[in-house]
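Handout for the seminar on molecular recognition.
Each group receives one record of this type.
Step one: identify the two inputs.
Step two: read the structure output and locate the region that could contact flavin-adenine dinucleotide.
Step three: write two sentences on what you found, then compare them with the reference statements printed after the record.
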Amino acid sequence: MKPGAKRIAILGAGPAGLTIARLLMEQSDHSVTLFEKTHRVGGKSLSVRQGEDLIEFGTCYTILSHRRVMDWMREQGITIQQIVPHKIDGIPARDFFNSGPGAPLAVQGISYVLSRRKLLKALNSDTPPQKALEEAATPAVDWLRARNLGKIEKMMMRTVTGMGYGDLKTVPIVHAMRWVDMDLILSGTLNKIYMPVEGWSEFWERLAKDMDVRLETHVRHIDRSGDQHMVVLDDGTEETFDALICAMPVDRFSALLEPTESERVVGDSIHWGGYATTLISSEDWFEEQIEYYSETCLPGVEPGLLMSARREGYDAGLGGHLYIANQLPGDYTGPELIEILREEVTRRGGSINAVIQQEVWEYFPEYDPGAIRKGLIARMRQMQGERQTWYTGASFSHESVANICIHNEALVPQMLKALG
Ligand SMILES: Cc1cc2nc3c(=O)[nH]c(=O)nc-3n(C[C@H](O)[C@H](O)[C@H](O)COP(=O)(O)OP(=O)(O)OC[C@H]3O[C@@H](n4cnc5c(N)ncnc54)[C@H](O)[C@@H]3O)c2cc1C
């Protein structure tokens, strides 16, 4: 190690852990070690080969806000391919958004972006005014309707509910705002949406190849009582570090150590939702690349229903065309979701020949509105660096690789300054 370099432990080698490791390696001489409990890097990115086809069960797309990630993809020799313009209820996405009530989409877009900027700026102050906290906790649909943003509501049905980021009837507007920014509006209307041809899993493996990643490593306990942090593994091995980065769910991180007040409050204020992706085969379903169904993304809709499906290829041995079908699991079990899916595919004009693989993800950490009103977001900012511990991942930004990477780009300079 170079003189003055510090040892940093990162818990979790998903997108959050890998992107912050990469930024630290680019910008400092500190030594970075990632502890990952599973046998692979990438977390909720999972590309599975089925014959000729590569199926994404987790992370799929990049949009304009994935700039940094796409730069790294190019650097790693990953081919980035634009997807074909997608349709919602059989009509082009832009026409679907435009079918919402109110002023033209461009006018609503500007109005939304200005209101968003104002609220996020207020929330970013050291002591956000109570009015801003109340506004941030407002259910998305109420906030949008109070401002006559009917076309933006239609866009959010697709890009918020349709992507598992909460029911517009209940999800606090601050969550929707973190994701729906100018980049997303432009990406959605101009179809600037891409996928990595070699797959997300391959990308993360290539990015991680120069990193010290300890796979299948179970951390039993972390002791922060001394000057340095001691990480104790299941086999009894101990290693000391100058700083820790939590890149795994914070509630489970807290179970590994004596949590601070903020770690406890944040863990208690987050409710994890889910997202189910099921690979099925059919000989008689749709021929488009992707289909979205608006009816199942309406505010207040029941979980389990089919929100969208993507055609992934053809494999006669597996029963025909392959499709990834997306459902919000709610409290349903995997087999129950498959039963609902069979009915849903029939309702949408197809029939399932085989169910090949299902993944039910822990997904979208939603903040309790009461905790937002009590200043949760400022607390999450202010706890960074307490006890030489930093936090990243979906809970601290948003459930998207773009947001996570942008969060890390802002966090790393703060961290480096604090580490000296
Ligand atoms: C179906 C689906 C589709 C998606 N589509 C997109 C998309 O199109 N575009 C996009 O940008 N994002 C998408 N996402 C979201 C994106 O995948 C996630 O936001 C991202 O993976 C979150 O990264 P993370 O590192 O915070 O968490 P995770 O990906 O969950 O990674 C956390 C890592 O920590 C590890 N870990 C947990 N506990 C421990 C422990 N005790 N010790 C060590 N390691 C531990 C886990 O094994 C995991 O590897 C999608 C997600 C899903 C599920």
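Reference statements: The pocket of flavin-adenine dinucleotide is lined by residues 11-17, 35-38, 43-45, 58-61, 219, 247-248, 252, 275, 277, 361, 363, 393-394, 399-402, 404 (CB under 6 Å). The chain has 16 helices and 19 strands.
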